Amino acid sequence: MDTLFATFGSGNCFKAHLVMEQLSIAHNVRWIDVLKGEQKAPDFLDLNPNGTVPFLLTSQGKGITESNAMLWYLAKGSDLFPQSNMAETETIQWMIFEQTKLEPFISPARFFSVILPERKQEMAGQIKDWQGRAAVGMERLNAHLSAQAFMVDNRYSIADIAIFGYVHVADEAGLDFGLYPAIAQWIERVEDQSGYQQILSYKPAA
Ligand SMILES: N[C@@H](CCC(=O)N[C@@H](CS)C(=O)NCC(=O)O)C(=O)O
């Protein structure tokens, strides 16, 4: 069985978890508390020298880092996988967009707003900068979704899941969905997909 090492509240971990749930892939979840630094513990570094989550240990004993690589691996051959060479190409394009124009800004702004709010005031200047950068990506995404129901070929796929991981909680990073109506409507369409699960809550019980 595949094992997903994940931390609570992470959009990157959520992506891999969501695709496994939607495809009914049998899996275990092992929780790594990044607030306690468990991702740098020697036994975890032995498995994943990158010291990050999500980390997928496949049933064949192969380790995968990078949430979007996990989506590719897990969904290959399923209905969630892009169905043509061009759809694969567009999916990779949007996955890179997500990791360069959205996630690097939404994720830390949200982290210091709702996961570690005790540092929100101290980080206020940085949060504002991240929000401004995320807004550029959100505008581009909103324009794309104004013309189609889903990210690629008008069908729900891992391209949507990759983008959805952080975008659906962008309000927690201080972004206003009212400015991005096409994104807000797409979020509802994704949440309506069969097997949809919510992002896991922020902190493990003590
Ligand atoms: N690009 C990677 C990002 C991995 C990443 O930075 N994960 C965060 C949690 S979302 C983490 O492990 N942070 C703790 C650390 O870097 O020590 C992905 O998409 O999986």
Q: What would you say this structure looks like, in words?
A:
- The protein has helices spanning 11-22, 42-47, 67-75, 85-115, 124-146, 158-167, 181-191, and strands at 2-6, 27-31, 55-57, 63-65.
- With 206 residues, it is α+β, with helices and mostly antiparallel strands.
- It has two domains: 2-75, Glutaredoxin (3-Layer(aba) Sandwich); 85-191, Up-down Bundle (Glutathione S-transferase Yfyf (Class Pi), Chain A, domain 2), CATH 1.20.1050.10.
- The chain has a four-stranded mixed β-sheet, covered by helices on one side.
- Bound molecules: glutathione.
- Residues 7, 10, 12, 34, 39, 51-54, 66-67, 99 line the site of glutathione.
Q: State the end-to-end CA separation.
A: 28 Å
**Number of helices, where a helix is a run of at least 4 consecutive DSSP H or I residues:** 7
Physical arrangement of strands within the biggest beta sheet: 2-1-3-4
CATH topology of the largest domain, anyone? Glutathione S-transferase Yfyf (Class Pi), Chain A, domain 2
Gyration radius, to the nearest Å? 17 Å
